[in-house]
Specification:
Length: about 300
DNA sequence: ACTTTGACCTGTGCGC
DNA sequence: TGCGCACAGGTCAAAG
């Protein structure tokens, strides 16, 4: 589920549900996710009121009135289920799995992969579920955000300051294929495997093109790079727009592919016809950096 | 300094 | 039906 558009969709949902509400209880059902939970995380969250929910790259940053920030990354399979106060009894009735957390507290939820549970002053509950546990949860003081190891090396936000000139500067001297570069958080943030493939297809650029071939001798971006930067922005915006339309019930959505899948032009369409106007090519799958890349060899050069 | 590979996890879907 | 394997939206440390 989680590339920039999906994380942004989740951010909107959490913002609506959480801002202005106090966290009354936190239950952790294991020692950590990808990394151990920081010591005292529960103590920092409990009793604090959420003041805002931000996003940086694919990280969710939940600001608390205590001056602390709760960081949440969804990894590959993380998701939040939001349960409104009136739904809580129903969930309590249907959940039959273990109800005891790692630390022995009794909780009402607890599917095998429900690792964190948050209860709020208004009676709502949020459950973080993550089968693969590649997600991250952390807490730090807002003042220390600029020196957070997880955040400090991140490149530009694609929908904010990012320009073709910036992309050209970062692409200079890079010999790795452009698809790999798009996935590099230092080049631009938020683009994952799906949208990298989609943006390259929209731009008519082969994923295997060496990155530095998109920069002119004088350091300016080529026309192709200008187009790529524009198409990354476009595809992300289009996906956010669609995610937004399902926002009302996003908490109930099971988080896997789903809605934007209808809009994929190449991703996961191996052997299918290229959908670009006038192109009769066939979508191929190749492997780059151990990840699948989908492309139309006919219209991507 | 750059680039590639393997590791972290569990679940699912496929071929045999 | 069962088993083994390939693969899945991300990131980082280690090796090349």
């Amino acid at each position: 589920m989680p590339e920039l558009p999906e994380v942004e969709t989740v951010r909107c949902g959490l913002e609506q549900a959480w801002v202005g509400h106090r966290i009354t209880e936190v239950y952790l059902r294991r020692e950590g996710l990808r990394f151990p939970f920081p010591s005292g995380m529960t103590a920092h969250l409990k009793g604090a009121t959420v003041t805002s929910v931000r996003r940086r790259a694919k990280y969710l940053l939940i600001d608390l009135d205590s001056g602390m920030v709760f960081l949440s990354h969804l990894g590959m399979s993380g998701r939040y289920t939001l349960i409104t106060p009136d739904e809580v009894p129903k969930y309590l009735a249907t959940e039959v799995s273990s109800n005891v957390s790692t630390f022995g507290e009794l909780t009402g939820f607890g599917g095998r992969h429900d690792h964190m549970e948050f209860r709020f002053g208004n009676g709502s509950v949020a459950v973080y579920t993550d089968p693969r546990r590649f997600g991250i949860a952390d807490v730090f003081p807002r003042a220390e955000e600029p020196i957070q190891t997880l955040l400090e090396h991140l490149g530009p936000e694609p929908l904010e300051q990012w320009t073709a000139l910036d992309a050209a500067n970062r692409a200079k001297g890079k010999r790795s294929p452009i698809k790999t570069t798009l996935l590099d958080q230092r080049f631009v943030v938020g683009v994952g495997n799906i949208y990298a493939c989609e943006a390259l297809h929209r731009s008519g650029i082969s994923p295997t093109r060496p990155t530095n071939k998109l920069v002119r001798k004088d350091g300016k971006p080529t026309k192709a790079l200008v187009e790529l930067v524009a198409q990354v922005k476009e595809v992300l915006k289009a996906a956010i727009a669609v995610g937004g339309s399902t926002l009302n019930d996003f908490a109930a959505v099971d988080g896997t592919l789903g809605y934007f899948g209808h809009h994929f032009q190449v991703y996961d369409r191996e052997d299918g016809p290229c959908l670009k106007e006038g192109c009769n090519g066939t979508i191929e799958r190749i492997v780059q950096s151990n990840r699948s890349t989908f492309l139309c060899p006919r219209c991507q050069k």
